[in-house]
Design a protein that fits this description.
Helix content: 25-40%
CATH topology: TIM Barrel
Order of helices and strands: HEHHHEHEHHEHHEEEHEH
Strand content: 5-15%
Strand order of the largest sheet: 5-4-3-2-1-8-7-6
Shape: globular
CATH superfamily: Glycosidases
Length: about 325
Protein backbone atom coordinates (compact mmCIF):
# COMPACT_ATOMS: atom_id res chain seq x y z
CA UNK A 1 0.00 0.00 0.00
CA UNK A 2 1.15 3.50 -0.77
CA UNK A 3 2.35 5.43 2.26
CA UNK A 4 0.91 8.91 2.59
CA UNK A 5 1.95 11.70 4.89
CA UNK A 6 0.37 11.58 8.33
CA UNK A 7 -2.14 14.22 9.33
CA UNK A 8 -0.30 16.92 11.27
CA UNK A 9 -1.41 17.06 14.92
CA UNK A 10 1.76 18.65 16.27
CA UNK A 11 -0.24 21.62 17.60
CA UNK A 12 -2.60 19.47 19.68
CA UNK A 13 -2.60 20.77 23.26
CA UNK A 14 -4.60 18.13 25.14
CA UNK A 15 -4.67 14.39 25.84
CA UNK A 16 -7.11 12.34 27.89
CA UNK A 17 -6.69 12.55 31.66
CA UNK A 18 -4.76 9.85 33.50
CA UNK A 19 -8.04 8.93 35.16
CA UNK A 20 -9.73 8.39 31.78
CA UNK A 21 -6.86 6.31 30.39
CA UNK A 22 -6.70 4.24 33.57
CA UNK A 23 -10.43 3.54 33.42
CA UNK A 24 -10.21 2.44 29.78
CA UNK A 25 -7.26 0.13 30.41
CA UNK A 26 -8.74 -1.38 33.56
CA UNK A 27 -12.07 -2.04 31.82
CA UNK A 28 -10.27 -4.88 30.01
CA UNK A 29 -13.27 -6.20 28.08
CA UNK A 30 -15.78 -4.15 26.12
CA UNK A 31 -18.54 -4.41 23.54
CA UNK A 32 -18.60 -2.83 20.10
CA UNK A 33 -21.81 -2.40 18.07
CA UNK A 34 -22.32 -1.81 14.34
CA UNK A 35 -25.95 -0.85 13.76
CA UNK A 36 -27.78 1.38 11.32
CA UNK A 37 -30.01 1.40 8.23
CA UNK A 38 -27.79 -1.24 6.62
CA UNK A 39 -29.18 -3.83 9.06
CA UNK A 40 -32.44 -3.72 7.07
CA UNK A 41 -30.61 -4.99 3.96
CA UNK A 42 -28.41 -7.46 5.83
CA UNK A 43 -25.48 -7.31 3.40
CA UNK A 44 -23.02 -5.52 5.65
CA UNK A 45 -22.32 -1.94 6.66
CA UNK A 46 -20.58 -1.17 3.33
CA UNK A 47 -23.64 -2.13 1.24
CA UNK A 48 -24.40 1.42 0.05
CA UNK A 49 -20.94 1.64 -1.54
CA UNK A 50 -20.51 -1.98 -2.59
CA UNK A 51 -23.88 -2.33 -4.32
CA UNK A 52 -24.01 1.21 -5.70
CA UNK A 53 -27.36 2.01 -4.13
CA UNK A 54 -28.77 5.41 -5.18
CA UNK A 55 -29.06 7.76 -2.22
CA UNK A 56 -32.82 8.32 -2.47
CA UNK A 57 -33.41 4.56 -2.53
CA UNK A 58 -31.17 4.12 0.51
CA UNK A 59 -32.73 7.08 2.28
CA UNK A 60 -36.14 5.44 1.81
CA UNK A 61 -35.01 2.76 4.27
CA UNK A 62 -35.69 5.37 6.96
CA UNK A 63 -39.43 4.76 6.49
CA UNK A 64 -38.88 1.10 7.44
CA UNK A 65 -36.52 1.55 10.37
CA UNK A 66 -38.57 0.77 13.46
CA UNK A 67 -36.55 -1.43 15.87
CA UNK A 68 -39.32 -1.98 18.39
CA UNK A 69 -37.31 -4.63 20.25
CA UNK A 70 -34.51 -2.22 21.12
CA UNK A 71 -34.14 -1.99 24.88
CA UNK A 72 -31.09 -0.17 26.22
CA UNK A 73 -31.50 -1.83 29.61
CA UNK A 74 -31.46 -5.31 28.05
CA UNK A 75 -28.26 -4.48 26.16
CA UNK A 76 -26.67 -3.13 29.34
CA UNK A 77 -27.75 -6.15 31.41
CA UNK A 78 -26.26 -8.46 28.78
CA UNK A 79 -22.97 -6.58 29.06
CA UNK A 80 -23.00 -7.00 32.83
CA UNK A 81 -23.49 -10.75 32.40
CA UNK A 82 -20.66 -10.89 29.87
CA UNK A 83 -18.33 -8.90 32.12
CA UNK A 84 -18.01 -6.03 29.64
CA UNK A 85 -17.31 -2.56 31.02
CA UNK A 86 -17.40 -0.34 27.94
CA UNK A 87 -19.55 0.05 24.82
CA UNK A 88 -18.45 1.61 21.52
CA UNK A 89 -21.48 2.10 19.23
CA UNK A 90 -21.66 3.44 15.69
CA UNK A 91 -22.99 6.94 16.15
CA UNK A 92 -22.45 7.45 12.40
CA UNK A 93 -21.01 4.93 9.95
CA UNK A 94 -19.72 5.62 6.44
CA UNK A 95 -23.29 5.86 5.08
CA UNK A 96 -23.77 9.09 7.05
CA UNK A 97 -26.90 7.95 8.91
CA UNK A 98 -26.87 9.24 12.50
CA UNK A 99 -28.09 7.16 15.44
CA UNK A 100 -28.82 10.21 17.59
CA UNK A 101 -30.98 13.33 17.41
CA UNK A 102 -28.38 15.54 15.77
CA UNK A 103 -29.48 19.07 14.92
CA UNK A 104 -27.16 19.18 11.89
CA UNK A 105 -28.93 16.79 9.49
CA UNK A 106 -32.32 15.13 9.08
CA UNK A 107 -30.64 11.86 8.01
CA UNK A 108 -31.05 10.47 11.51
CA UNK A 109 -32.83 7.92 13.64
CA UNK A 110 -35.32 10.40 15.11
CA UNK A 111 -36.76 10.98 11.62
CA UNK A 112 -37.70 7.30 11.29
CA UNK A 113 -40.89 5.62 12.57
CA UNK A 114 -38.84 4.60 15.62
CA UNK A 115 -38.36 8.26 16.48
CA UNK A 116 -36.13 7.73 19.52
CA UNK A 117 -32.55 8.74 20.27
CA UNK A 118 -30.66 5.44 20.62
CA UNK A 119 -27.58 7.05 22.13
CA UNK A 120 -29.57 8.94 24.76
CA UNK A 121 -31.25 5.75 25.99
CA UNK A 122 -27.96 3.86 26.08
CA UNK A 123 -26.23 6.69 27.93
CA UNK A 124 -28.69 6.39 30.82
CA UNK A 125 -28.73 2.58 30.96
CA UNK A 126 -24.94 2.27 30.83
CA UNK A 127 -24.32 5.01 33.38
CA UNK A 128 -26.60 3.26 35.86
CA UNK A 129 -24.42 0.14 35.57
CA UNK A 130 -21.03 1.85 35.59
CA UNK A 131 -20.34 1.04 31.92
CA UNK A 132 -18.45 3.61 29.83
CA UNK A 133 -20.07 4.83 26.61
CA UNK A 134 -17.77 5.30 23.62
CA UNK A 135 -18.79 6.61 20.22
CA UNK A 136 -17.57 5.07 16.98
CA UNK A 137 -17.64 7.94 14.48
CA UNK A 138 -16.94 7.60 10.77
CA UNK A 139 -14.95 10.45 9.28
CA UNK A 140 -15.89 9.22 5.81
CA UNK A 141 -19.42 10.19 4.79
CA UNK A 142 -20.76 8.78 1.51
CA UNK A 143 -24.00 10.78 1.55
CA UNK A 144 -23.28 14.23 2.98
CA UNK A 145 -23.00 16.54 -0.08
CA UNK A 146 -20.26 18.69 1.45
CA UNK A 147 -17.94 15.66 1.72
CA UNK A 148 -17.29 15.84 -2.01
CA UNK A 149 -18.08 19.45 -2.84
CA UNK A 150 -17.21 21.74 0.09
CA UNK A 151 -14.51 20.31 2.34
CA UNK A 152 -14.31 23.19 4.87
CA UNK A 153 -18.08 22.93 5.36
CA UNK A 154 -17.83 19.16 5.91
CA UNK A 155 -15.07 19.58 8.51
CA UNK A 156 -17.26 22.17 10.25
CA UNK A 157 -20.16 19.68 10.10
CA UNK A 158 -18.29 16.78 11.66
CA UNK A 159 -16.74 19.01 14.33
CA UNK A 160 -20.25 20.22 15.13
CA UNK A 161 -21.43 16.66 15.55
CA UNK A 162 -18.52 15.88 17.86
CA UNK A 163 -19.55 18.86 19.97
CA UNK A 164 -23.09 17.47 20.19
CA UNK A 165 -21.85 14.03 21.21
CA UNK A 166 -19.61 15.57 23.85
CA UNK A 167 -22.29 17.79 25.39
CA UNK A 168 -25.63 15.94 25.13
CA UNK A 169 -24.98 12.58 26.80
CA UNK A 170 -23.16 13.23 30.06
CA UNK A 171 -19.66 11.88 30.78
CA UNK A 172 -18.48 9.58 27.98
CA UNK A 173 -15.64 7.09 27.74
CA UNK A 174 -14.19 8.07 24.40
CA UNK A 175 -14.24 8.14 20.60
CA UNK A 176 -13.16 5.55 18.06
CA UNK A 177 -12.68 7.23 14.68
CA UNK A 178 -12.74 5.33 11.39
CA UNK A 179 -12.19 6.44 7.80
CA UNK A 180 -8.68 7.89 8.08
CA UNK A 181 -6.74 5.31 6.09
CA UNK A 182 -3.47 6.87 4.88
CA UNK A 183 -2.05 3.45 3.95
CA UNK A 184 -4.86 2.62 1.51
CA UNK A 185 -3.95 3.04 -2.15
CA UNK A 186 -7.56 3.49 -3.28
CA UNK A 187 -8.85 2.67 -6.73
CA UNK A 188 -10.89 5.29 -8.62
CA UNK A 189 -14.31 4.21 -7.32
CA UNK A 190 -13.17 3.94 -3.70
CA UNK A 191 -11.43 7.31 -3.87
CA UNK A 192 -14.64 8.91 -5.22
CA UNK A 193 -16.57 7.74 -2.16
CA UNK A 194 -13.92 7.69 0.55
CA UNK A 195 -10.90 9.89 -0.14
CA UNK A 196 -10.77 13.14 1.84
CA UNK A 197 -10.72 16.39 -0.10
CA UNK A 198 -8.41 18.12 2.34
CA UNK A 199 -6.99 17.98 5.87
CA UNK A 200 -9.21 16.48 8.57
CA UNK A 201 -8.19 19.03 11.21
CA UNK A 202 -7.68 16.38 13.87
CA UNK A 203 -6.01 19.07 15.95
CA UNK A 204 -9.31 20.90 16.27
CA UNK A 205 -11.30 17.68 16.72
CA UNK A 206 -9.08 16.14 19.39
CA UNK A 207 -8.70 19.32 21.44
CA UNK A 208 -12.47 19.89 21.23
CA UNK A 209 -13.17 16.42 22.64
CA UNK A 210 -10.52 16.58 25.35
CA UNK A 211 -11.65 20.06 26.41
CA UNK A 212 -15.34 19.07 26.68
CA UNK A 213 -14.71 15.53 27.95
CA UNK A 214 -11.32 15.48 29.74
CA UNK A 215 -11.59 11.77 30.63
CA UNK A 216 -12.53 10.62 27.11
CA UNK A 217 -9.92 8.51 25.31
CA UNK A 218 -9.46 8.83 21.55
CA UNK A 219 -8.26 6.33 18.97
CA UNK A 220 -8.21 6.33 15.19
CA UNK A 221 -8.52 3.09 13.21
CA UNK A 222 -5.79 4.27 10.86
CA UNK A 223 -3.60 1.14 11.01
CA UNK A 224 -0.74 3.46 11.93
CA UNK A 225 1.05 4.48 15.12
CA UNK A 226 -1.02 6.91 17.21
CA UNK A 227 -0.78 10.61 16.48
CA UNK A 228 -0.43 13.30 19.12
CA UNK A 229 -3.87 13.73 20.68
CA UNK A 230 -4.75 10.04 20.36
CA UNK A 231 -4.76 8.03 23.57
CA UNK A 232 -4.56 4.39 22.49
CA UNK A 233 -3.78 2.21 19.49
CA UNK A 234 -6.30 -0.26 18.05
CA UNK A 235 -5.88 -3.40 15.93
CA UNK A 236 -8.80 -4.48 13.74
CA UNK A 237 -9.50 -8.23 13.86
CA UNK A 238 -5.99 -8.80 15.18
CA UNK A 239 -3.72 -8.58 18.20
CA UNK A 240 -1.22 -5.80 18.95
CA UNK A 241 1.84 -6.00 16.74
CA UNK A 242 0.37 -8.79 14.62
CA UNK A 243 -0.83 -8.73 11.03
CA UNK A 244 -2.16 -12.26 10.76
CA UNK A 245 -5.87 -11.80 10.14
CA UNK A 246 -6.28 -8.29 8.72
CA UNK A 247 -3.49 -7.57 6.28
CA UNK A 248 -3.39 -3.77 6.61
CA UNK A 249 -2.86 -3.64 10.37
CA UNK A 250 0.18 -1.94 11.87
CA UNK A 251 2.97 -4.20 13.10
CA UNK A 252 4.54 -1.37 15.10
CA UNK A 253 3.41 -1.01 18.69
CA UNK A 254 3.68 2.46 20.14
CA UNK A 255 4.01 3.57 23.74
CA UNK A 256 0.30 4.15 24.38
CA UNK A 257 -2.28 1.61 25.59
CA UNK A 258 -3.55 -0.89 23.04
CA UNK A 259 -6.82 -2.58 22.10
CA UNK A 260 -7.76 -5.64 20.04
CA UNK A 261 -11.04 -5.15 18.14
CA UNK A 262 -12.76 -8.43 17.22
CA UNK A 263 -16.17 -9.65 16.05
CA UNK A 264 -18.49 -12.41 17.24
CA UNK A 265 -19.72 -12.89 13.67
CA UNK A 266 -17.51 -13.07 10.55
CA UNK A 267 -18.47 -9.47 9.74
CA UNK A 268 -19.28 -6.35 11.72
CA UNK A 269 -23.01 -5.87 11.15
CA UNK A 270 -26.11 -8.06 10.80
CA UNK A 271 -25.69 -10.40 7.79
CA UNK A 272 -28.12 -13.31 8.16
CA UNK A 273 -26.80 -15.23 5.15
CA UNK A 274 -23.33 -15.32 6.73
CA UNK A 275 -24.57 -16.05 10.23
CA UNK A 276 -21.84 -18.10 11.91
CA UNK A 277 -20.87 -16.88 15.40
CA UNK A 278 -17.49 -17.80 16.81
CA UNK A 279 -17.31 -20.25 19.71
CA UNK A 280 -17.10 -18.72 23.18
CA UNK A 281 -14.01 -20.81 23.97
CA UNK A 282 -12.21 -19.50 20.88
CA UNK A 283 -13.05 -15.91 21.78
CA UNK A 284 -11.84 -16.47 25.32
CA UNK A 285 -8.54 -17.66 23.89
CA UNK A 286 -8.26 -14.43 21.86
CA UNK A 287 -9.13 -12.53 25.04
CA UNK A 288 -6.36 -14.37 26.92
CA UNK A 289 -3.86 -13.49 24.21
CA UNK A 290 -4.95 -9.85 24.21
CA UNK A 291 -4.69 -9.72 28.00
CA UNK A 292 -1.19 -11.23 27.82
CA UNK A 293 -0.26 -8.26 25.62
CA UNK A 294 -1.93 -5.90 28.12
CA UNK A 295 -4.51 -4.95 25.49
CA UNK A 296 -8.17 -4.13 26.00
CA UNK A 297 -10.39 -6.70 24.23
CA UNK A 298 -13.31 -5.18 22.29
CA UNK A 299 -15.87 -7.62 20.90
CA UNK A 300 -18.36 -6.53 18.23
CA UNK A 301 -21.99 -7.57 17.71
CA UNK A 302 -24.39 -6.56 14.94
CA UNK A 303 -27.95 -6.00 16.22
CA UNK A 304 -30.85 -7.13 14.07
CA UNK A 305 -33.22 -4.70 12.28
CA UNK A 306 -35.71 -5.17 15.13
CA UNK A 307 -33.24 -3.75 17.64
CA UNK A 308 -32.24 -6.87 19.54
CA UNK A 309 -28.85 -8.54 19.64
CA UNK A 310 -29.05 -11.91 17.91
CA UNK A 311 -29.89 -14.70 20.40
CA UNK A 312 -26.84 -16.69 19.25
CA UNK A 313 -24.56 -13.74 19.93
CA UNK A 314 -26.20 -13.27 23.31
CA UNK A 315 -25.52 -16.90 24.18
CA UNK A 316 -21.87 -16.53 23.22
CA UNK A 317 -21.49 -13.44 25.40
CA UNK A 318 -23.21 -15.01 28.39
CA UNK A 319 -21.09 -18.14 28.08
CA UNK A 320 -17.95 -16.01 27.90
CA UNK A 321 -18.98 -14.08 31.01
CA UNK A 322 -19.68 -17.22 33.02
CA UNK A 323 -16.39 -18.83 32.02
CA UNK A 324 -14.32 -15.68 32.58
CA UNK A 325 -15.72 -15.45 36.10
CA UNK A 326 -14.93 -19.11 36.74
CA UNK A 327 -11.37 -18.61 35.47
CA UNK A 328 -10.97 -15.37 37.40
CA UNK A 329 -10.09 -13.44 34.25
Amino acid sequence: MARRKDEDTSRVRLQASRKGVKRFVEAGFGMSVHWGLYALIGHGEWVYFQEGIPFEKYRALMTKFNPVRFDANEWADLMVEAGQKSLAITSKHHDGFCMWDTALTDFKVTRTPFGRDVLAELAVALRERGIALHFYYSLVDWTHPAYRTDWPRYVEYYHGQLRELCTNYGPIGGFLFDGYWPNWDMDKKTAKYCAPRGAWDFTGAYDLIHKLQPDAVITNNSHRLPLKGEDYQVWEQDLPGENRFFRSNCTQVGTKPTAAWWTVQPGWSYTPRDHNPKRADDLIEFYRRAKAKKAVFMLNVGPRPWGDIHPDEQRVLRKMGAKLRTLGL
